[in-house]
Design brief:
One of its GO terms (molecular function) is lipid binding. The chain has about 280 residues and is an alpha/beta fold. About 40% of the residues lie in helices and about 25% in strands. The chain has helices at about 15-20, 45-55, 65-75, 95-105, 120-135, 140-150, 165-170, 175-180, 205-220, 235-250, 260-270, and strands spanning about 5-10, 25, 30, 35-40, 60, 80-85, 110-115, 155-160, 185-190, 195-205, 225-230, 255-260, 275-280.
């Protein structure tokens, strides 16, 4: 059985890597000043943050239309027997449900949808593992079992640098945002039950980063081989410095640097930083 791997743009897997591993991507969109852009197609993350700075109104986001999934699945049916479609958490987007709906509309191919219950490169870890297995000819049932197994090893924490984005997006009251900014509070966020919720309130960016390192250390001490990603919102140089620091501190962990693209960046804001990890399979 030949299996295709599909994901959405919020995994933020570089195009060259998607092409190398035969990963198919469906883009979500961001609307800025009345213009709609498909992320990873029409707008880069750096261009997005530049646009946000000059627009008073916060961008909005939209999930892919079901028809876009249907079109892709029908095209894949010409060369594949099955699709594993891996998407950002169903608690923050209807993209996963859209893939299920489209799969039910296409008779020519079996579609197996997977809710990552997370986003960004941590979602990407699922996708990359599924792609490696599919390219090695592993059966679809084994791929789905591996993805379910990976969920037990996932950890991810995000720090919002600018509370105004959370407040403008309806995730924080005006009073909380004002007080938080005055006190330099950097809320540490994580996914719980498929949605983004506060994990801890921490004073200063430096302490928030230190806390993320401590949480990674707790995961490393469990003994499983890990892969980890430093995720930034238009702070590439800082992310590279953090990567170098963590590689020295945790030599057993395989690190990369990724980013919060337009859709996730709309809600977290420029300057945000994240750290996430998952089990690494040899």
């Amino acid at each position: 059985m030949k299996t295709a791997i599909v994901t959405d743009s919020t995994a933020y897997i570089p195009k060259e890597l998607r092409d190398k591993l035969n990963i198919h991507m469906i883009p979500l969109s961001v609307i800025i000043g009345g213009e709609t852009y498909q992320e990873e197609v029409d707008i880069t993350d750096s261009a997005f943050y530049e646009e946000v700075r000059v627009n008073e109104k916060l961008p909005t986001t939209s999930q892919p239309p079901v028809g876009q999934f249907v079109e892709l699945f029908e095209e894949l049916a010409k060369d594949y027997d099955a699709v594993v479609s891996i998407h950002l958490s169903s608690g923050i987007s209807g993209t996963y449900q859209g893939s299920i709906t489209a799969g039910n509309m296409v008779d020519e191919i079996d579609v197996y949808a997977f809710d990552s219950e997370i986003s960004c490169m941590i979602q990407g870890f699922y996708v990359l593992e599924a792609a490696k297995m599919a390219n090695a000819g592993e059966p679809v049932d084994e791929i789905m079992l591996r993805l379910d197994e990976m969920k037990g090893s996932i950890g991810a924490y995000f720090m919002a640098d600018d509370l105004s984005h959370l407040q403008r997006g309806g995730r924080l009251s005006s009073a909380q945002a004002m007080i938080g900014s005055l006190l330099q509070i950097k809320p540490l966020l994580h996914f719980e039950n498929k949605v983004i919720v506060p994990f801890e309130k921490i004073r200063t960016r430096k302490k928030a980063l230190k806390r993320m390192y401590e949480l990674l250390e707790e995961a490393v001490e469990k003994g499983e081989p890990l892969q980890a990603s430093v995720i930034h919102a238009n702070r590439a140089e800082e992310a590279k410095e953090i990567q170098r620091e963590l590689e020295e501190r945790f030599p057993s962990v395989e690190f990369n640097v990724s980013y919060f693209g337009p859709v996730i960046g709309t809600h977290l804001g420029e300057g945000s930083m994240g750290l996430g990890w998952a089990k690494r399979y040899e």
